[in-house]
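Running this now, will post back.
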Amino acid sequence: MSSQEISEAESLRHEQDAHGTEVAEHPFADPGLPPHKPRKQDIDERAARRSERAVALLFTVSMLATIGFIASFVIFPVDKIIYVWPLGHVSATNLSLGLTLGIALFCIGAGAVHWGRTLMSDEEMVDERHAVAATPEVKAKVMADFADGARESAIGRRPLIRNTMFGALAMVPLSGVVLLRELGPLPEDKLRKTLWSKGKQLINMNTNEPLRPEDVAVGSLTFAKPEGLEEHAEDFNNQIAKAALMIVRIQPDDIKDRRQLEWSHDGIVAFSKICTHVGCPISLYEQQTHHVLCPCHQSTFDLSDGARVIFGPAGHPLPQLRIGVNDKGYLEALGDFDVPVGPAFWERG
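Update: finished.
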């Protein structure tokens, strides 16, 4: 091989090495951005206004759907069942709430998408990566870009879109506010009062008969309910959960609390059966110590000393019911409990 041939071979090898290095560093060529093609809305104001009205219509439908959501919540009873093909028998409340809320959210999203695709600027721009910490120049550029975006979005020139969008976004959260109402009925003063009142007889829970003092033996534990509360009543469970009463007869000399003695009759004391910890029913009585035990968390109360807490997580004594005997010889209430029954929500009021 001649020296010229050797020189040409080396030159070709160097070119191949250089080309290979370039390909390794940049295996895919940058195709660049395609030429920008204006949309119909960019060159035809009538088309732009049609898109504007379409977006406003979607936002308006969202507002109407939110109003429909609230109206459905108010109009349809919880137990209302309707037949809808092909779903079959469904809850009118669930169907109407889901349908109206879905339409409200969908129309906001569809309106925003249609706005962005037809009226906002769609020209692609290349911005090289930069350091995480922005320089003052970059910050100024960002603010300028933001101002350009606001101007190009036409939000200032198209108040119909702006106002209906703000209206839709402002009304959708009302759906969540209305749902808070479903957390439960407003308690008002229901938790502070029970069915017990002056003159109501104590009815034995087992025999469903009025109690006489001689029916309560020393050391026994008897459960009672207010006169007029029947087990077949629609709200029986709600009422007995507050009015359940336990009656114990203690020797008057063994009662330590003076007020408890005044509120009793011949050693017969009446206390709420509902534990002041989390509201469990108390049913375990130890007659020698006069202690009652809550089976849920072992809170223990001394019925000979104002039902004060002697053990466990309960924070308050059991409420006492003042009792007496009517002219027929039956035990009766002389009022309601001195404090609300159950967990001590009322002390944080």
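Residues 143 and 149 are 10 Å apart (CA to CA). More later if anyone needs it.
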